[in-house]
Write a structure and sequence with these properties.
The chain has nine helices and seven strands; from the N terminus they run H-H-E-E-E-H-E-H-H-E-H-E-E-H-H-H. Strand 5, helix 6 and strand 6 form a beta-alpha-beta unit. Helix 7 packs across helix 9. It is globular, with a radius of gyration of 18 Å.
């Protein structure tokens, strides 16, 4: 059934289109094996200041999440964790802190994807610009080298304080995983996808033991800026194509 038809059936479901996008991104992340069991989380702000947000339900596998399953919470509501449908405590700690403190982080995706986590496990967790894809993240990612344990509220607040530069959209969480932010689900998922691909290329290049061909800072910054200013909305089209595939397969992600 089309998203339009489902929307007509669910006129009282708040933020329906946003829910559909987030559910599709969760489904596709599972298909790419970029999640980890039921331990990772995506969130999306739905009000002006970003403090009210949708998040995937506690302990549900990404591959099963539907639009109607997503939980709407308020980052400023201390009673959130007393609700029967409360999110995972670390999801609340990390995503709640991000949405409270980083108004520009409309969408927040945190995973323990294999190659990004390998990068996060290296003594030097900076992604070097060795190809066009990795160059798009030049000066656009930071490394948090002060892992302090599970992302409960204090750790979440500490992580959120690191996003002071609005140009930075990716945080390599040393000894942990990766956190990606953006304005929309489409933009953030696209960035997560390409960061994992860039990490995979880098890690496999290291496997060869050969000297790496690293781009100059000048060229890497040119590439990153060109991608920032790219005239075609590729991220939006990327997610639209994934939703079309799910629709053709008869997926219930939009239910």
């Amino acid at each position: 059934m089309s998203v339009t038809a489902l929307a007509e059936r669910r006129p009282n479901l708040p933020h329906y289109e946003e829910r559909v996008d987030l559910a599709a991104a969760l489904r596709w992340t599972a298909r790419l094996n970029m999640h980890e069991a039921v331990a990772n989380h995506f969130s999306l702000a739905v009000n002006d200041d970003g403090t009210q947000f949708l998040i995937n339900p506690n302990l549900m596998h990404f591959s099963r999440v539907k639009a109607s399953d997503l939980v709407l919470v308020d980052a400023n509501d201390p009673a959130t964790m007393d609700r029967p449908e409360a999110p995972d405590p670390t999801a609340w700690g990390l995503h709640g802190a991000m949405h409270r403190n980083c108004a520009h982080a409309r969408c927040v995706m945190h995973v323990h994807s294999v190659h990004a986590t390998v990068l996060a496990s290296l003594a030097d967790s900076v992604l070097p610009p060795i190809d066009q894809t990795s160059a798009t993240f030049f000066g656009r990612h930071i490394v948090d080298g002060d892992y302090g344990g599970l992302a409960f509220e204090d750790e979440g607040e500490r992580c959120a304080r690191l996003f002071t530069d609005p140009k930075v959209k990716v945080m390599v969480m040393a000894n942990h995983g990766v956190l990606v932010i953006g304005d929309t689900v489409a933009e953030t998922f696209d960035r997560l996808y390409y960061f994992e691909r860039a990490c995979e290329t880098y890690i496999k290049a290291l496997w060869t033991g050969k000297q790496l061909r690293v781009l100059s800072d000048e060229v890497a910054e040119t590439v990153a800026r060109q991608v920032d200013e790219y005239p075609v909305a590729q991220a939006a089209r990327h997610l639209a194509e994934l939703k079309a595939i799910l629709d053709e397969e008869g997926s219930n992600y939009a239910a």
